[in-house]
Amino acid sequence: MATLTVTLKEELELNGKDRGSELTLSVGSVTQAYHRIVTCPANNDTTIATFQTAVHTADNAIDLEDAKYIRVTNLDTSNEVVLSLQISNSENGTADGSTSILLAAGRSYIMGIPHEGIACDDDSAAIITDTALHDLESLVVDPKANSVSVEVFIAS
Length: 156
Hints:
By secondary structure, this protein is mainly beta. The protein has no helices and 13 strands. A hairpin with a 2-residue loop joins strand 2 (13-14) and strand 3. The radius of gyration is 17 Å and the shape is globular. The termini are close together. The relative contact order is 0.28.
């Protein structure tokens, strides 16, 4: 087993003072890595990763209970994408909810565990407790009107 080490470093000098920081995260017991660069064709939603309860239950599935670290990076230098996190609210391996974020050019989205690690409430602004979190079913990129490459890295 291996340990994934992730370092986030922010450098900022503001009004003559250092306001940056550096954080290091260690993710232990890693036995698998999923890493690919995907070109998402213009005007086409592209599934870049799928999570299921077992790897044999869907083509190219990642075991959602084994995944520990997820990163998606928009590699384009000028075009944004919409990253949709497809949620299995009933936790049956089928997406029946989603939440989307705008991922600007050159930016990354990082997530921890996908098993009971996400939820979205569309009828109120109430805080969702950890007892109401669901499974991430897949990651889908909408590149809008541009062909855009994204990088996906998942450690399990």
